[in-house]
Structures are given as structure tokens and as C-alpha cells.
Amino acid sequence: xxxxxxxxxxxxxxxxxxxxxxxxxxxxxxxxxxxxxxxxxxxxxxxxxxxxxxxxxxxxxxxxxxxxxxxxxxxxxxxxxxxxxxxxxxxxxxxxxxxxxxxxxxxxxxxxxxxxxxxxxxxxxxxxxxxxxxxxxxxxxxxxxxxxxxxxxxxxxxxxxxxxxxxxxxxxxxxxxxxxxxxxxxxxxxxxxxxxxxxxxxxxxxxxxxxxxxxxxxxxxxxxxxxxxxxxxxxxxxxxxxxxxxxxxxxxxxxxxxxxxxxxxxxxxxxxxxxxxxxxxxxxxxxxxxxxxxxxxxxxxxxxxxxxxxxxxxxxxxxxxxxxxxxxxxxxxxxxxxxxxxxxxxxxxxxxxxxxxxxxxxxxxxxxxxxxxx
Length: 374
Known about the structure:
Layout: E1 2-7, H1 11-27, E2 32-37, H2 43-49, E3 53-56, H3 68-91, E4 95-100, H4 104-113, E5 118-122, H5 129-134, E6 140-143, E7 158-160, H6 174-181, E8 188-193, H7 200-212, E9 219-224, H8 230-239, E10 250-253, H9 259-264, E11 268-271, H10 275-284, E12 288-290, H11 300-309, E13 314-316, H12 319-324, H13 328-337, H14 340-351, H15 358-370
Parallel strand pairs: 1-2, 1-4, 2-3, 4-5, 5-6, 6-7, 8-9, 8-11, 9-10, 11-12, 12-13
Helix pairs in contact: 1-15, 3-4
């Protein structure tokens, strides 16, 4: 089987594509898999680092307002359509998969026109503009949140597959991870993170939480600042008379590649609501206070958060509310610290959102499509 996977821009598009590619390789070791992206996104490093070949085409996003850049985008799109056509004719894939990013437009449109079987994957609860456009042309639409179904017209094409996350997130050991990280059974452990780059509003609110932490005896905190914000965060703590190295209630990190263990030891998470963060928390079953990034395209992070909070798996705090009252986060944490039974209910409802074997579900749809059963 020859597979072409279009994925570009952010890790949220690329890593699920990598997971699906690796699963295809496990199931069919003789398969050939290529990725296609642009020279502007994270795919230029992530894809080769994971052992897959990357082809590049020319395409860029459109500004929301008409400008000179709009003309440049049209030119790039025209060139990208030519690049996409040449790539498809040269590679001759059996199937083309779109995982997100502007690169998907030219590739999936040409593949559809050339009668090559096509599948797109939507990571978010509110679909992006490219996937909504492509949904009328492709053969199958994989969604990660059931809420996304209502935004696509072609219901017969849709299958629920979730977001592929590392298998470690489904194999957490609460007590073992606590021991490894130095927490006791009685501790109320809160982990907070704003993504690899950090989130300024969450960092500011966590300063308030840490400053007030002494008022809750059981409270222990792991806070991940983001790589570029660590020094400023630590300096702010010191300016408030808090020595992070001597305070046994807090662990401050710039970044962690062991989020399965960190989520796995926690009673509660504080997090943005990117698709992968929501999927990882659901896999572990850690209830969360979601603070969606307010400038995400089409406000999709709030839709992701509400897909969990509306069913009781977490609590929603809007970024604007947090800016107006940074103390609101500590109030919510303090309230939950005394309600372990409610947290267990939240944990169960969060866990119910997890979709196990996402890659297998997606792979099975590929086989159904190639076998003429779409």
C-alpha cells in the first residue's frame, strides 16, 4: 500500500499523522508512506525525525482581511496546485490522508479529482475551514469529538476515531507515579501547563495559586511554565519571597516529555484545550480546569473544552475571566480540594471521553475504503 499523508503547520496536525503512519507500518511492513507539507511548518523537523520522507509544496494561508498578502496567497495556492498534481502523478498513492494544515487543500482536491481514495482527519470539536471545504470532495471524514459531526453536511462519510495519543497515556499507574515523583497518597496534586511554549495568562494565575498554596495543607503543585517563560516565572516567585528550591509544595519545570506520568499522578489538571491536550487528559482520566486559548482559529479550543465540561469531566474558565480575576483559579482549586468524591465523578466522566485504539479505527477505515466499502 502506498500512502501519502498531508500534514502541516503545528504538532497537533503532524503528530496524529505520525501515529497513524507508524500503525500502518506495523500492520503492513511493506507499505510505502510519504508525508507532504510546506517549508514553513514543524513538519520539516518532526517528520524526518520520525523516519518518514517529506515532500514539500508551495501553499500559504489567507489573511482574514483583504490585503496584498491575499494576492501572494492566491499565487502560492496556484503554484501549490501544480506542485500537488505533479507529486500525485509521480508517486501514484493508493490513498491520500489529510491531517490538517493548508497543505491539505491542494493535495486532497487533486487526489479527489484524480479518483484517488481520500480521508481527512479533524482533530478539533469545531472543524477548521480547510476541512469543511474538503468534506464535500473526500471519501471519508474522521472526527475526534462527536460534537464535530454537526458541522459537516455529509454525515454518511463520518466516522468517530478520536485523536491518536501515545499508548503510555492509557497505561498510567497512579500510585507508582506518585511514588516516583515524591507525592503521598494524602496529597492533593495539581498539575498545570500551557503547552510547550507556555501560556502567559496561566502562568500569572499560577503565581497567585502558589502564593496562596500554604492555606491548603494537602496541596502540591507541578507547574510547567513553557521553555521561554521559565526564567521570568522563577524570578517572579523569588520577588514574592518564595524560594522554589526550598518549597516542598511546588515543582516548577520549563518542559516535560513525560506528561503521561505527570498527568497520571495528578488529582486535577489546569490546561489549555488543544485537541491533543484534551485527548491525553481523557486517556489518563485526569479531570481538568480548561482555560482555552482565546485566539485559536474559530475559537476551537473553547469548543474542545466544552465537549468535556458540558458532560461534567472538567471546569471551564475563559481566559478573559481569568484576566479580570486571576484569583478565580485558586478559588476553583480550593473548592475541589475538599470534594474528592466529586473529583472521582469528574475523573470517570473525563475517562469516558477517551477513544482507545484510535489508530486502529483509522486504519480499519482505510482498509474499508480501499476494499470498496466506503
